[in-house]
Structures are given as C-alpha cells and as structure tokens.
Specification:
Its EC number is 2.7.13.3. By secondary structure, the chain is an alpha+beta fold. Helix content is 48%, strand content 17%.
C-alpha cells in the first residue's frame, strides 16, 4: 500500500487583484473601527448606569430623611407593619419605583420594609457608616437581591442622628437597560460599517481605474522595470510635473544636458538657463524632432504631455549625425567642384583640340599657358594669404563651386592668416558655413560676388564674409542665430537652421562673437571675432610677409620656386 499523503495545510490566500485587496483591507479597517468604537462605548456604559442608579437611590434616601415627620414618628411610635413610618416609606417607594425604602433606628432595627414580616428585625447589611453621619452609595446584595443602594443618616429637629434611611434600586433593571441599549449600538455600528464598506468600494473602484486593475506585485515589477529601462536606454528622458519642474532625469539626459541630480525639483530655466533647449523641453516651442544645441551637442527633442498636466521629453544626440551631414555637404561640394572642373576642362580641351586642328599652334600654346597660370595663380594666392592648409584647401574648393554657380569668390586685400591656429577644424566649420550661406544668398543676383576677409592681430582672428545678396532685415539679425530658424528649404538628409547657431556657439566657446550687419553696397556682412584663436609660437613681426601682398596677383617665378 502506498503511504497516505500528508494532509494539506489550509492556507489563506489573499486576492491578487489590487481592487479586491484594497477593498478587503478597507472593509477590515472599517469593521475593526466599528467594533473598537462599540467596545469603547460599552465599556464605561455599565459603570455609568451603576453610578446613575446609586445616585438615584441616594437622592431618594436624602429626600426621605429630609422629612422631619419620619424622624419624629421613629422616636414616638413602635416598629409595626401599620405604623406611620411604614406607611410613609411605602408611599415614597411606590412613587419613586424603588426596590425598597427602609427606615431603621440607631440599633439597625427596621421600621419599614416592602415585606412587612421583616419590620422589627435587624437590617442585613452594616448601617454603621450611615449611623455615623456619612452618605453611602454601593452595589450590594441583601434580602431583596442585588441592588444599587443609597444610605443617609436620619436626624431629628435638633440635628441629632436618630436612625438611618436605606433606599435600594434593583440592579437587574440597570442591567436590563444596558442590554436594551446594546442592539441599538450594534445597529449604529452596522450602519457605520455599511457606509464604510460603500466608501471603501468606491475608493477601490477609483484605485482600480487609476492602476488599471494591476496587482501590487505587478506595479512593483513595473517600477523596477521602469528604473532599469530609463537608466539603460541610450536616449535622454526628462519628466516634468504640471508646474514645469523637473521630476525625473535618467543617466543619458544628465549626460546630454550636462546637469546632475540637483536639477530635480527645479524649473527648466533654473536648471538649464534661458534658451532654446529650455523652451523646447517646456513646450514653448512646438513641433516634432526639434533641434537644439546644448554645449557642443546637437540634440533632437520630442515632447509628449501626460494626463496629470506634466510632460515627458526625450532627447537624442544628433552631433555625430550632424557631423556626417556636414561631411556629406563637403563631399557634395567637392563633387560639384570636380564636376565644374570637369565641365570646364572639357570645354578647354575642345578649344585646344580646335586650335590644333586649325594648326594654330602658337595660339594653342598661349591658351594652355593662360589656363595653367590662372589656376596656379588662384591656388597660390590663397595659399600665400591663408597659410593654414585646411582653410586654404577649403577656400580653393569653394572658389571652384562659386565659379560654377556664377558667383565670384575672392579674398579681401587685407587678408592674412598665419599657420598657428589653435582650433583649425572649428574655424573651417565657421568659414564653410558662412561661405555656403553667402553663395546661396548671392547666387542669381546681378554681379554676384562673395568676399572673404581673414585677419590676425596678435592672438585674435577676425573673419568677415560679405555677399551681394538681398541682405538680412534688421529685425531678423538675431533670429537667424536661433536653432531651427531658416529661410531655406530643408534638405533631404538633415535639418536646416543649425549652421549659423553652430557658428555662434563655436565663436562663443573661444570667448568670441558672431554678428551680422549690412555690407557696403548692399548685401550681408557676417563678422566673427575669435580673441584666443592663435597660438603664441610666432612673433608679431613674422606676420608682415603675410599681410604685404604683391601688386600683381599672379605669383612671380621666384615665389613659385620658394612655394614649391
């Protein structure tokens, strides 16, 4: 035979749903409060009823002893069932509905009693305190059972104690009153419990709707998962309350925004400072995939309002993507330059072929010399004035693109920049963005021209880019440096309205400035001043050759050999 399996223990399982758990807990609390209140009320009720009964008995005894006729009859008449003391005591007992009214002399002999046979006998309880002149209240047992008693001394006209009066009220009547009150108390307690249960049900229903009927374990698991998710994802998350104060920041948001835990509980303007980033996160700028610059980072922000009046904003780092976009722009510019050169080269080759076919050999030689000389003069003129190779290469490429677009790109006569830049890549970004904007503005205008001026004074580098375009209205001269603002159509691969803000940010990073004004003769003139752009490796005297330009823009043969 197989062994008998052990009996399973009975285990009480609480309901798993939050609605049922909250309802059960609240009903239990309401029931406990009702029982406790009933118990607290009943506990002193018995004592209160006893005290009331004893005081009532004492009051009847005092009223009886206050009648002088009873004291006089006690001393003048014998203790008989038909005596005046018995008749007066019974009258008082009947009128007050007391259990008994007993009048006794100083020896403790009864002169009145509800049972006439007890008259003339000694009382069953000690009357010593009353005969000694004290009022007595007590619960005691006598010949008539358990009663609430009151005993007082009986005095004659001269105040001498001649006996005592003892009045009793049946204790069972007091208990009956107590028992009679209990059903009413339980009725009130039951009504309170019913109201509490209804309130608990309504509250539980509200909690159920707000928590979507999840169990406590589910909510705990969701909170743990939320914390892990928020701090594990590679997007910044910022939660705001209805007042616009920061309620939550994950690790990525702290990194992207450059703030710490102390920002929690503060407004966006306090934590981030006034600017576009705070405006975007606060919802003062609306839209999707909004661009903003924070420090050296280009961020994409999206904002979603919540039901409680707050919002959750997400941040993505677009810095690398913007760099790729700028590199793509540079690549496209290089392709355009190569295409323009290829087109120009094809035309010149066709011209050269025609000259050769016409046997105009001298003209062909002269034509080739001019072409080679022009290209060499342009490249060497830029290299002479701009000694930084990155900037020089950029401007040579931009000149070719400008020629293809029908815009003359030139360097100002005062241009001169030595090869000791601290951040050449940053200056390349600044010059590239400003030249591209100038080419876009000047293209298609009569006598289209863009002029670039780069000068060095001590450690300060000053850049000016002028164009012959329509110019910038005065009311928009600060607006154009705002992230996301642009008059151009958005390209397919990235957002517009980020180039000029980056120019200003890069300038301000070096303690400089970026402004725009009106160029002489019309158009726009952008000015960038970089106070700490140059290193101190060279003396100021070494700048003179770069600032002194030859009268003939085409380099001389000696200069060619030196440059080579």
């Amino acid at each position: 035979m197989s062994p008998t399996p052990p009996a399973r223990r009975l285990r009480l399982h609480l309901p798993r749903r939050m609605f049922a758990q909250v309802l059960l807990m609240q009903v239990a609390i309401a029931a406990g409060v009702a029982v406790l209140a009933t118990g607290l009320f009943l506990a002193p009720l018995s004592d209160q009823l006893d005290d009331q009964a004893m005081r009532r008995a004492l009051s009847i005894a005092q009223t009886t002893a206050a009648q002088p006729q009873i004291a006089e009859d006690l001393t003048d008449t014998p203790a008989t069932a038909g005596g005046p003391v018995q008749r007066e005591a019974e009258r008082i007992r009947t009128a007050t509905k007391a259990e008994y009214v007993v009048v006794m002399d100083r020896r403790g002999v009864r002169w009145s009693h509800p049972t006439p046979g007890e008259i003339g006998r000694l009382v069953s309880t000690d009357p010593g305190q009353a005969l000694a002149g004290h009022d007595v209240m007590q619960i005691d047992s006598g010949t008539l059972g358990r009663t609430a008693r009151g005993k007082v001394p009986l005095r004659d006209d001269e105040g001498k104690i001649v006996g005592a009066v003892s009045v009793g009220i049946a204790y069972d009547s007091v208990r009956a009153r107590l028992l009679h009150a209990i059903p009413g108390l339980f009725a009130y307690a039951g009504g309170a419990l019913a109201v509490g249960a209804l309130a608990a049900w309504l509250i539980s229903r509200r909690v159920q709707r707000q928590t979507r009927d999840l169990a406590f374990s589910d909510i705990s698991a969701l909170l743990a998962e939320r914390e892990a998710m928020l701090h594990g994802i590679r997007e910044g998350v910022v939660a705001l309350d209805r007042g616009g104060r920061i309620r939550l920041l994950n690790d990525e948001a702290r990194r992207l925004l450059g703030i710490g835990d102390e920002a929690a509980g503060r407004s966006l303007d306090e934590a981030l400072g006034e600017g576009r980033t705070a405006d975007v996160l606060a919802g003062r700028v609306t839209g999707t995939d909004l661009l903003t610059v924070r420090g050296q980072r280009v961020l994409v922000a999206n904002r979603m309002p919540t039901d409680d009046g707050g919002a959750v904003a997400t941040l993505r780092d677009r810095t690398e993507l913007e760099q790729l976009g700028r590199e793509l722009d540079s690549t496209r510019g290089l392709i355009d330059a190569l295409r323009a050169q290829d087109h120009e080269h094809a035309n010149r080759m066709h011209t050269l072929l025609g000259l050769l076919e016409l046997e105009m050999y001298d003209d062909a030689v002269e034509f080739v010399g001019e072409v080679v000389g022009d290209h060499r003069a342009t490249a060497e003129q830029v290299a002479e004035k701009i000694q930084d190779p990155l900037l020089a290469a950029l401007l040579v490429g931009k000149a070719t693109v400008a020629a293809e677009r029908g815009v003359a790109l030139s360097l100002a006569d005062r241009t001169g920049l030595p090869d000791r830049l601290i951040d050449p890549r940053g200056l390349v970004t600044i010059v590239g963005n400003l030249v591209d904007n100038a080419l876009d503005a000047a293209a298609g205008t009569p006598h289209a021209r863009v002029e670039v001026e780069l000068r060095a004074e001590g450690r300060t580098a000053t850049l000016r880019v002028r164009d012959t375009g329509p110019g910038i209205p005065e009311e928009q001269r600060e607006l154009i440096f705002t992230e996301g603002w642009s008059t151009k159509q958005r390209p397919a691969h990235r957002e517009r309205g980020i180039g000029l803000p980056l120019v200003r940010r890069l300038a301000e990073r070096q303690g400089g400035s970026a402004t725009v004004g009106e160029a002489a003769g019309g158009g726009a003139e952008f000015t960038v001043v970089l106070p700490e752009a140059l290193a101190e490796a060279l003396a100021d005297a070494e700048l003179e050759p770069a600032l002194t330009l030859p009268s003939d823009p085409r380099p001389q043969p000696v200069a060619e050999e030196e440059s080579r």
